[in-house]
Amino acid sequence: MTALITISDDKVFALTNRAFSYVMRRAQSGILEHVYYGPPLGSPLEIDTGRRNVERGCTVDYEGRPAVNLNETLQEFPCYGTSDYRYPAFHARSASGHSVFQFRYKSHRVTSDKPEIDGLPSARGGASETLIITLEDPYQNIEAQLSYTIYEAHGVLAKSVKVINKSAAAITLQNIFSSTLDLPAHDYTLLHLQGTWSREFNAERLDAAKGRFVIDSARGTSSAAHSPFLAALEKGASEHHGRVYATSLVYSGNFAMSAETSEFDDVRILAGLNPFDFEWHLNPGDSFSAPEALHVFSANGLGAMSHIWHDFVREKISPPHFKNAPRPSYLNSWESCYFDVDENKVLALADKANDIGVQMVVLDDGWFEGRKDATTSLGDWTADTIRFPSGIAALAAKIKSKGLKFGLWFEPEMVSPESALFKAHPDWALHVPERTASLGRNQLTLDLSRPEVCDYIFEKMDAILSCGDIDYVKWDMNRAMTEIGSAGRSDGRDGQNIAHHYMLGLYSVLSRLTAQYPHIIIENCASGGNRFDLGMLCYAAQNWTSDMCDPVGRLDIIHGASYVFPPDVMAAYIGPSPNHQNGRVSSLKTRYAAGAFCAAQGLSLSAVDLDADFDALRQYISLANACAKDRMGGRFDRVLKTQNETAWQLTTADKSKVSLAYFQILSAPNLPVRIVRLAGLDPQGVYRLRDDGASYRGDALMQAGFAMPYSLLGHPRSGVRYRDSGDFASHIFVFEKVSGS
Ligand code: DGJ
Fold first, then answer.
1. 206 CA to centre of ligand 1 in angstroms
2. Distance from the CA of 278 to the center of ligand 1, in angstroms?
3. Distance (Å, rounded) from C-alpha 602 to C-alpha 329?
4. Which of 430, 467, 435 is nearest to 221 (CA)?
5. Beta-strand (E) ranges in 463-512?
6. Which residue CA neighbors atom 10 of ligand 1 most closely?
7. Contacts from 425-429 at CB under 8 Å and sequence distance 24+?
8. How does DSSP assign 244-286, residue by residue?
9. Measured from the CB, is residue 581 less than 6 Å from ligand 1?
10. Opening angle at CA 86, ends 80 and 90, nearest 5
11. Best mutation site among 199, 200, 365 for ligand 1, i.e. most ligand atoms within 8 A of its Cβ?
12. Which of 20, 208, 616, 710 has the greatest CB tally within 10 Å of its CB?
């Protein structure tokens, strides 16, 4: 491996691979300045590092150094109080009460390991180098270790920060961002993903304007309101061109990301823990590690950006045990039975599932003692003796004996006030003693900042999973946190930290469980995509993308999620029509097509619906099973997006098969013929269309494009160019590569 990190004698640091160069320098002031982030440079150490030092009449010279105006210096770890007035990466209160800090270069080292981050998930290393630059505030005797990992084969830069109090006095951290990306003046557009329950991942663009644009969460989960993802795009950047600087976080709790356009048009991107309601007391000798931030640079638009994220998630984030492993198709009991589940019903569903060709049965909510609706029993996790008289282990064994896999739903972080657990340990719920606790879906959040609560969750789940017949766990989480206080912490001043301590507790439980049961697929879910982030994906092989199963509702969700997440980690199933969330009636064909590229697929339909559509479902499930391998490790392209139409392309990892899914939401007469240009094909390759056997050259499909089917209302014609008329139409074209390199 050629060196990815080079360092000059005068401390210019360059990280370079085939995708980008990232350059920093120790300035004369000692401050670690950011110099460059962009396309790879042949000689990055020779870059003109001093070009931004201009003297302006209106600014403050840092510690009397002429032309060192921190307010427009691109920096790696900016602080407040010494002439930079933009939002800082670091802000703290000293024992003497002031908040003036400034860090200077102290030392550095390079390692081929990627050190883990204390208590937090992070991207795996391997074929990578990590530069750790230690900065110090000499007045305060505080150190900050900034870690930068560059990979040989990925266009991702991983950054994290650890602060160590080497002084004899405590300090209080009030704000510590994991990454600062100071971009030089330019016209930027910001892209972020916002939403809510059942409407997650809406891509929204806005012009970077003077001031700060912030996305964050104070809900205890990363949340559907804002995915922890923010990209600065060169104005006009599209799927195929323009520079993109994207950031995401390996964290699942209260985060913040901001883009601040300064008076000089520089843009500062900050990413990390939400400073709001955050304080962390750092006693002498203590250290604090902030979560990992990941950056992707793409010189060729959002499509290339997504390919970088997708490869990286598969290789360095997702649990390695499931890498490229086709996911079993499943039948989930939720929209089939809701809480009305019992052993006989589940066994009957299992038989139907088997007949249809489904490979796994998932028993969703409702299986434990007293859980007849959403008002009770979370936290107890013992099977309901009346409805499941032989218990979960026996049920699992029975299902396995039918040749099926078995999956089970848990909501481990929750407790119902109406539960044995709450009666025994009312203080185990997050609460503030003198206030009435607010309920969400009738439930309280367990206090995972307490080790004994984490142990309880582990032991309860272990008792069930240890039967050995459980192949899959749906890990749900259905409310945002409120009254975030803990009875387990005697130091009242520590109260503001509970949300972060909670995350450390959650990650510890997930680490223990995945170490004990590496073969169990965890499907992460938080009322759908309310905690769909890179932190949870370090443990969960797949994610329940959204509770929205209506195909039209799903389109934008998958489209938006695909900016960061590969279809390899997305789960989708065919749900009922009319849809239970928005009442829309849609065809089975389109319900299947919307999720057709998601790794995990299945059904959640009542016994009546399963019977009514038995033959068609058998066909779709047979297709889903047959293509399960195609959905792993492939290339996903967003090839069309208008208000009324969406098209995606999925190319298998071996490039032998290209599927193109097209959706038209509303029908209208005399619409234009839509031409879609395919992406990433072999230009000289020949591709045969399954529908009619016609052959096309790759360059023609990419440059001239391929016409989407047209609806001729009242004049039905057959052939691939025509399709059924009516709303919510879809078609999946499959091309097989028959020759080429
Ligand atoms: C919310 C999830 O998103 C649903 O799929 C289902 O598992 C319910 N919770 C069960 O309560």
1. 33
2. 30
3. 5
4. 430
5. 472-475
6. 365
7. 427/487, 427/488, 428/452, 428/453, 428/456, 428/487
8. EEEEEEE--SSEEEEEEE-TTS-EEEEEEE--TT--EEE-TT-
9. no
10. 40
11. 365
12. 20
How far, in Å, is the centroid of ligand 1 from the Cα of 328? 19
Torsional sign, CA 718, 722, 727, 733: positive
Q: Is residue 478 lining ligand 1, measured as CB closer than 6 Å?
A: yes
Q: Is 334 in the pocket of ligand 1 (CB under 6 A)?
A: yes
Taking the C-alpha atoms of residue 408 and residue 54, their distance in angstroms, rounded to an integer, is 63
pLDDT confidence of residue 490: 57
- Measured between alpha carbons, how far is 464 from 508 in angstroms, rounded to an integer? 19
Helix axis angle, 451-465 relative to 498-516, nearest 10°? 30
* Mutational test site, ligand 1, from 544, 548, 605, max ligand atoms within 8 Å of CB: 544
Q: Give 476 Cα–ligand 1 centroid separation in angstroms.
A: 7
Residues 6 or more apart in contact with residue 61 via CB below 8 angstroms: 67, 68, 69, 83
* Model pTM score: 0.98
Amino acid, single-letter form, for residue 76: E
| Low-confidence residues in the chain, pLDDT < 50 | 492-493, 495
State residue 708 phi and psi, 5-degree precision.
-80, 155
Q: Phi and psi of 590, rounded to 5°?
A: -75, -30
CA–CA separation, 17 vs 4, rounded Å?
6
C-beta of 523 in contact with ligand 1 (< 6 A): no
Residue closest by Cα to atom 1 of ligand 1: 527
Cis-peptide into 284, omega within 30 deg: no
Residue 173's Cβ-count burial label (10 Å; 0-12, 13-18, 19+) is buried
Q: Where are the alpha helices (DSSP H) in 55-156?
A: none
Single-letter amino acid, residue 589:
K
Q: Quickly tell me which residue has 């066909």 as its tokens.
A: 619
Record the tokens describing residue 296, joined without a space. Answer: 């992707």
679 Cα: distance to centroid of ligand 1 (angstroms) = 36
pLDDT of residue 55: 75
Return the active site residues: 476, 547
pLDDT of 54 reads 74
Terminal Cα-to-Cα distance of the chain (whole angstroms): 27
604 within ligand 1 shell (Cβ under 6 A): no
Alpha-carbon distance of 346 to 331, in angstroms, equals 10
SS (H, E, C) 314-352: HHHHCCHHHCCCCCCCEEECHHHHCCCCCHHHHHHHHHH
Cα 527 to ligand 1 centre (Å): 6
**Is residue 365 within 6 Å of ligand 1 at its C-beta?**
yes
464-513: per-residue pLDDT in tens? 999 999 999 999 999 999 999 999 875 544 545 899 999 999 999 999 99
HSE-up (13 A, CA, CB side) for residue 626: 7
Closest Cα partner for 73 from 115, 35, 128, 16? 35
CA-nearest residue, atom 4 of ligand 1: 527
CB of 366 shorter than 6 A to ligand 1: no
**Distance, CA of 95 to CA of 481 (rounded, Å):** 31
Opening angle at CA 325, ends 324 and 331, nearest 5: 130
Distances (CA, A) of 27 to 12, 74, 105, 244: 9, 11, 9, 27
CA atoms within 13 A on the CB side of 669: 3
| Spacing, Cα 603 to ligand 1 middle (Å) | 14
